Amino acid sequence: MAEHSNMPRRTFIRHFESETGMPPMRWVVLQRVLSARRLLEKSDWSVEKIAAVTGFGTAANFRSVFRREVGTTPSAYRKTSAT
Q: Which helix (H) or strand (E) is 20 found in, with range?
């Protein structure tokens, strides 16, 4: 992101944090989780497919990050959001 904005990395991070209140990678993770939540609510895609399309790579990584950020597993989230 810093290269794309033609700023030195540290300057970009400082500006990003001042605008969003969080570091760039934290923001990226939260955006990925938000996308994953939407897919869990609205699709019947597997956890593996959601992990891949939202940028988490592996299902194990996705489950770990999702649980840390949301407080539940992707499968449990899907069950509660369906009701």
A: helix 9-20
Residues of the chain with pLDDT under 50: none
Q: CA-based diameter of the chain, in Å?
A: 47
Tokens representing 32 are 């990925």
**Which residues have CB under 8 Å from 78's CB, separation 6+?**
40, 41
The residue among 82, 63, 64, 83 whose CA lies nearest residue 74 is 63
| Cα 10 to Cα 12: distance, rounded to the nearest angstrom | 5
Q: If you search the block for the tokens 């794309």, which residue do you land on?
A: 4
> Residue 83: its pLDDT value, please?
57
